[in-house]
Each structure stands twice: as C-alpha cells, then as structure tokens.
Design a protein that fits this description.
Length: 409
C-alpha cells in the first residue's frame, strides 16, 4: 500500500514539474514574441518613407541594371538606416554636369556596392570623404564622381566607362576591385541571378559572349532593397532563425552542435564559388576567371588612357583578409584546409596590374590596424565597410591623387 507521504511527494513533484514546463513554455512564447517584434521592426517600412520612395534600380539593356535618375529609397538594417538618393544622371552623389568647369579636376570611381556605398550616409562614402579631403589639402579644385553600382563586376564597370563614365572627362579613374568580381566576370548572371553582360578571351582578345539582354520576367534585378533578405522562420520560429543566423558565421562549431539538436538550420560547409580563387581546387575555372579579368583590366586601361585619364585600382579586401580571427572563423565555417590562402587574390591581382603598368592601391595595412585596435572598419553582419572603412579607403586614394602630376600643374 502506497503511503500518504509518498503520494504527497509525487503530487508535489508533478506540480513542480508542471510549473517548470509552464515557465519554459511562457519563456519560449516571450522570446518568440520578442524575436518577431524585432524582425517586424526591421522589415516594417516607414509609411512616410515608403510613400516618398522612388525606384533606385531598373533594367538596362547594356549593363543589366543601373539606377534611374531621381530615385530615392530608405535602406534599413540592424546595423544601419540610410536614405539613398540618386541624382539627375543616375548616380549617387552631387549632380555634376558632364562638362568639367574650368580649373576643376576630376576623379571617377568605378565599382560595386563598396563604391556606391548604399550602407553609409552620402557624407560618409569614400567619394564624399575623398572630395572633401582633396579640397581641404594642398591640391584643391577637385570633383569626385561616384560611378559605383551595387553588384557590378569589372565587365559592367568597363562598359559603364565606355558608355557614360568618360563623359565626365575624368583626370583619374579608380576601379574598386573586390574578390567576387573574379567569379562574376566569367558569369552571365549576377549575384542575384540577374542577366548581365559577360566576356571571354579568344586569341588574347576580349570577346562579348552575352546575347542581347532583356528584362527578367520575374522582375529581376530587384535592387530596390539591397542587402540582407527578409527573415524566414526556421521550424516556424523567428527566434530560432535569429539564433541560426547568429551562430552560422560567428561560431561554426556551436552551430553544428545546435543543428544536430534541430535548433538551427544545417548548412553546407562547401565554400561558395566566390571563394574558389583563394583555394587549391577548381584550377580551370579559377584560371578562366583570371584570364577574363586580366583582359577586362587591359581593355579598361586602354579606354581610360584614350580619353586622356590615368587608371588605378583600389583593392577592396574581404574582412577575413585584414582580421585574423575572422579568417579563422571562416576556415572553421567552411572547413578550409591549410592550402587556402587569404592573400593569394591580391597577390595575383598585383601581378596582373604590374604587367600592364596600372598601380594597385592597397589599404589592407590601415584596415588591419583599425580592425585590431578599433573602431572596426567593417559591419559585423553586413560584409561592407562602415564609415571608418570608407574613410580609410578615401585616405588611400587621397595619397595617390596628390602624388600625381595633375596636382603639380
């Protein structure tokens, strides 16, 4: 016969267990509600901003996409909240006429999102900082034109200069080069799957391989809201999605352990194709990327010089190239072996440029110093420079510009 004391203890145990389960359930609901509130705040457009927004991206029959004149939209992320305004000529920055005023010298910046700077205020872009620093120094009378467009690769930047950039009569042209340019220079599709121009090399000559570009029936390219995609639940939970997004890059070992428990989304450890140039495999594909890129750089140099300007290339390192802990985390995330080299891309680019006499501007040392001692030069979740990174890039450009003969005339 079960004693009354044992029954009492069992009843107490069950009550306590029920209270624990109830508390866990309440805490889970509170955490999920907070996560959904947080995600909703990020995704919810400002009604006034949405009403005032005008397209900041459109189809272009030669370039794949560009920015329509007078576009305006707000880009909101956890790390930044930026108003993008496009000028009358479809560029970000001041509305400069094509005709260069007497006594004025110009720098034209070509590049992708690092050049366009959709992730910082206009005053903090490399373009704006460079222009302000030049005009406050010993070599004054400069205008800096921002020819950057999100997701462009070198082929589109080359075509942009031929169609539009040369019309600004620049004295100097600076191309910002990021490692994923290599992949997309050899691809008919952009990072979002958009149709784009691309070239090959035949008998040492650059040859167009793309057919006539047409608008995507799905509406791509969708560059109206650049950056991170909206959050999608994992196992019906936004809280688990946020946990998954946080651990996948920041703590790969923890992410794999949580994935084994079903708490975060399992991800492939295969390195993305953008990383192939850093590694030992895929030799044929990587060599094709470099062959095409080299031909594009030569073609751009010839066009720039034909218009009386000088070309320089500013290297844009990924954060793992200037921050050893980030490189270690990247190695763990993608299980990269010892033969993977974070410096091989810039070394090969330098050799390609040396062969044609184009200077390479390299801000890695300055970026590494600030990454080591703070404040950081990159966002944590977004891959781009913050205002500090843009300032460092502008300082590197300033040193180059002020050393040119055009500053001594």
């Amino acid at each position: 016969m079960v004693s009354s004391s044992l029954v009492s203890r069992l009843r107490s145990l069950l009550i306590n267990l029920g209270l624990v389960l109830f508390s866990v359930a309440v805490c889970t609901l509170v955490v999920e509600a907070a996560a959904r509130l947080y995600a909703g705040r990020l995704a919810r457009p400002d009604p006034a901003a949405a009403a005032a927004a005008r397209p900041i991206s459109r189809f272009h029959p030669t370039l794949g996409w560009d920015k329509p004149p007078h576009g305006e939209a707000r880009v909101r992320r956890a790390e930044f909240d930026i108003l993008i305004q496009i000028n009358a000529r479809g560029l970000r920055g001041p509305d400069y006429d094509y005709a260069k005023p007497a006594g004025v010298r110009r720098v034209l910046i070509l590049g992708d999102s690092f050049a366009e700077g959709y992730y910082v205020d206009e005053a903090d872009t490399a373009r704006a900082v460079l222009e302000a620093r030049l005009n406050a120094g010993a070599c004054r009378g400069w205008q800096v034109v921002n020819g950057g467009t999100i997701a462009y690769s070198t082929d589109q930047e080359y075509l942009f200069f031929r169609e539009e950039g040369h019309r600004y009569a620049p004295d100097l042209v600076t191309l910002l080069f990021y490692h994923n340019d290599l992949l997309y220079n050899a691809s008919p599709r952009g990072p979002g799957g958009e149709a784009k121009p691309f070239f090959g090399v035949e008998d040492g000559r650059l040859v167009a391989r793309h057919a006539a570009l047409t608008p995507d029936p799905e509406g791509a390219p969708n560059r109206q809201n650049p950056g991170r995609a909206p959050l999608q639940p994992w196992r019906g939970s936004i809280a688990l999605r946020l946990l998954s997004n946080r651990t996948v890059d920041a703590s790969p070992g923890l992410h794999r352990a949580l994935a084994a428990l079903g708490l975060v989304q399992p991800v492939s450890s295969d390195p993305p194709r953008e990383f192939w140039p850093y590694g030992p495999g895929h030799g044929r594909e990587v060599e094709e990327m470099w062959t095409t890129t080299g031909a594009l750089l030569r073609a751009l140099q010839q066009d720039v010089e034909a218009h009386g300007a000088r070309l320089a290339v500013l290297y844009v390192p990924a954060r793992f190239e200037v921050n050893p802990p980030v490189w270690q985390t990247t190695r763990e995330r993608f299980k990269l072996g010892k033969r993977w080299d974070p410096y091989v891309v810039v070394d090969r680019l330098r050799a390609e440029l040396d062969a044609i006499g184009v200077p390479l501007l390299d801000p890695r040392d300055a970026l590494a110093r600030t990454e080591a001692s703070g404040p950081p030069a990159y966002y944590t979740r977004d891959v781009h420079w913050n205002a500090v990174g843009n300032r460092i890039a502008a300082e590197e450009l300033q040193r180059f510009v002020e050393a040119q003969p055009v500053c001594r005339r």
